[in-house]
Known about the structure:
Layout: H1 3-10, H2 22-46, H3 51-63, H4 66-80
Amino acid sequence: xxxxxxxxxxxxxxxxxxxxxxxxxxxxxxxxxxxxxxxxxxxxxxxxxxxxxxxxxxxxxxxxxxxxxxxxxxxxxxxxx
Length: 81
């Protein structure tokens, strides 16, 4: 299989509920992470939260670990209430 075949394969639908390609799935993940970061930045600014909480969210998003992202977002949310 050549590199071009791999690229073409990545654009083909997969076995998922919506028949999305890997590219479409990754694009949706990036969009979701972008929204989470925007919300975290806004909450940090609006509620004058500790910047370390925002940094934890950003680090979690960079790592792509869903559990770590949720943990960091919950810490940020708890600090805002």
